[in-house]
Design goal:
The structure holds three protein chains of three kinds.
Chain A: H1 10-23, E1 30-36, H2 37-45, E2 56-63, H3 65-68, H4 71-83, E3 87-90, H5 105-110, E4 114-117, H6 121-130, E5 136-142, H7 147-160, E6 165-171, H8 174-183, H9 185-188, E7 197-200, H10 203-208, H11 214-219, E8 224-226, H12 231-247, E9 252-254, H13 266-275, E10 276-278, E11 281-284, E12 288-291, E13 295-297, H14 306-309, H15 325-329, H16 353-356, H17 361-378, H18 383-387
Chain B: E1 5-13, E2 17-22, E3 25-30, E4 42-46, E5 49-53, H1 56-67, H2 71-82
Antiparallel strand pairs in B: 1-2, 1-4, 2-3, 4-5
Chain C: E1 2-4, E2 10-12, H1 27-41, H2 44-47, E3 61-69, E4 75-76, E5 79-80, H3 81-94, E6 99-110, H4 115-132, E7 136-144, E8 152-162, E9 178-181, H5 187-193, H6 213-222, E10 228-230, H7 236-248, E11 251-255, H8 263-272, E12 286-289, H9 294-302, E13 311-317, E14 324-327, E15 333-335
Helix pairs in contact in C: 1-4, 3-4, 6-9
The chains are: A alpha/beta, B alpha+beta, C alpha+beta.
Protein name (chain C): Hydrogenase expression/formation protein HypE
Family (chain C): Belongs to the HypE family.
Domain PurM-like N-terminal (chain C): 51-162
Amino acid sequence: MKYVDEFRDGQLAQELAQKIKREVQPGRQYHLMEFCGGHTHAIFRYGIPDLLPPEVKMIHGPGCPVCVLPIVRIDSAIELAMDHGVILCTYGDMMRVPGSRKMSLLKAKAEGADVRMVYSTLDALALARQNPEREVVFFAIGFETTTPPTAMAIQQAERLGIKNFSVFCNHVLTPSAISTILESPEVRELGTLPLDGFVGPAHVSTVIGSQPYEYFAEEYQSPVVIAGFEPLDVLQAILMLVRQINEGRAEVENEFTRAVSRDGNLKAKRIVADTFEMRREFEWRGLGMVPYSGLKIKARFAAFDAEKRFTLKRRSARENKACECPAILRGVKTPRDCKLFGTVCTPENPIGSCMVSSEGACAAHYSYGRYRDHLAADTPSNLIQKSEA
Amino acid sequence: MCLAIPVRVEALQEDEMALVDIGGIRKSVSIALVEDVAVGDYVILHVGYALNKIDPEEAERTLALFAEMGELEQIASEAAAQL
Amino acid sequence: MTVNLRGNSQLNFDTGCVEMIHGSGGKAMAQLIEGLFLKAFDNPYLRQQNDQAAFSLPPGRVVMATDSHVISPLFFPGGDIGSLSVHGTINDVAMAGARPTHLSAGFILEEGFPLRELKRIVESMAAAAKEAGVPIVTGDTKVVERGKGDGVFINTTGIGVVPEGVELGGDRVRVGDHIILSGPIGDHGVAIMSLRENLTFETAIESDSQPLHDLVADMVKVVPGLHCLRDPTRGGLATTLNEIAQQAGVGMQIQEANLPVRPQVAAACEFLGLDPLYVANEGKLVAFCPADCSEALLAAMRAHPRGGEACRIGEVVADPHRFVQMQTRFGGNRIVDWLNGEQLPRIC
């Protein structure tokens, strides 16, 4: 596959890893947060921690839309499917995520609700046309990457006069979440948690461009390197961050120039702006209420807004008190610091947000990384240090 | 987050759709979000929509960057050259 | 085509469909059995028209396996539920190192299912059994009301005999064993997914559904001391390796660079966010053998048309945690964990 295989070359990866090793300054720590679950996934899938020197620590951020969706929103989606008798369509990722009382859309389906997995909003629209007598609701989740396709579906539905289609909108915004992490006391207070740099999102940035990150670099003096999701992209971004840190620079650099410009995709941004507007605040699982971090459907398209079209119960849901996800999402703690990790909380029975999707920090660590913990436990010598890398 | 993959545009279709190829598999996807898509372009595909075109020159530049020598190596080789 | 048997009522294979009376035990059922099943599966056991088949088996330990087949879509590139139900059970028997000798077939049909499609399925099943040289010697048909089935469900049971000196099982796997795979993974799962509602894509990939007993016969002949065979069906290769690691109390170390995956399967997996290690196969096997036999075993497998792409993918290691680990192409290591629930296409 062109533009994929050449960015996965194992030999080049070794060379890049050597460069990183040579350029890190002994005794200095490089705490780098990859915001995106896509980067987290690549890091574990390709075994990148094994290639990095112990000075470089990757912190897995909150960039997985499935993980950060609050339980109450999942409960509402389940309510739409079970109590309002709609055809509820959503992406495969959402099917298994548990809401309150361990109920999920898959379980709702087993209990008779009409829940359909779709690949695209185009499929959801097609379902609405095929079932004119039924209400079809698309349960929309995702960051700026996934928002334009939802906007297109709403505009298409209006254009085609499809009356039985609506969207339960849960789209969220990346820059606000990064701000929240940088604003959190643990991160701001010097010495408790240095976040030395960010690996910026790949596909989000194809839409929003590199410009929105300029504020972080300047305001928080934090280097940002926007990187593709292939393993060589990630390694190159780490190298670029190490260089910025060594040289005391805090700039936005773009490693993913093959698809990201400073302004992003103007057409996609315009369609999104026509369709959605900011919510004053939106809850992020693990981060709490984040101001201006979520989108809602504009009044002009109210007919396609499931939250206007159906009366949903007011809900509240509590997270498990022992769950360390809020601290893990900010990089203050690691999955291994959580009492629930791997015992009560596993991918089969996720308790916290970081375990619900394969891209969450805990799930990724559980699935791909936990053998290192066992190695560390089995041989208490130099391996411990490595396990933290 | 945001699983997306580079695909090649094989044919333009009605309603701002295009037939794309991904390593031998083919699918009809929307190109409504991207300006001026032409056959032969590579676009990034996410949930059935092309999000952006891939710039072949920039891709080459990035690949060249991977192969570029590290600064220390450069210093070392320059030092070696001077000896 | 119209078949007229024992009286006036007819089976119309062009426009007819399964009706409740086809399972009632009366004349209509007899017509369906004679006009379709007997004709397609034809063999001396069935011709006797008893409710059971009586036969003798060659000497050796007898193996029995059963498998129920429920698949959507019923027809897919490279096969259908009929051929799959024959291959699946033959392979389950063969994984004991046995030669399958007899099959049974039980059908649960949904009222309203087109006879034309049933005929196609039954004929495909008959062809698969014939090609494999394993007769379907007894069967059963039931009909459920419309809405209470999914067209056709097929249960097949197989019997076979293990040659003298062969004893296979997950518990026999030992540290140091080599792990050998008979060919590329993920073909079946990708072929099925390409037809799934809301996912459809065009691909030339076909299901790898095929019987493996001839390949197994060659393998146990060359290496009778083989430790274990398993066909990585649902849950894919990753699940199979974890099952055996658990059973044998060992760990495994495999190499990503050695794993055969067809480019189109790899592309489909990229596009759907799936990992080929977890995608289903229906015509592949994974073998565990002592290291000193692995070259001979590989040679025997590669000499067989169904094992031409066989390769060594790793080895069994000591590990009290029973992890299956994979060395990535990058030289890093990662766990290949159990599959968590059904593998669903991802967007993120």
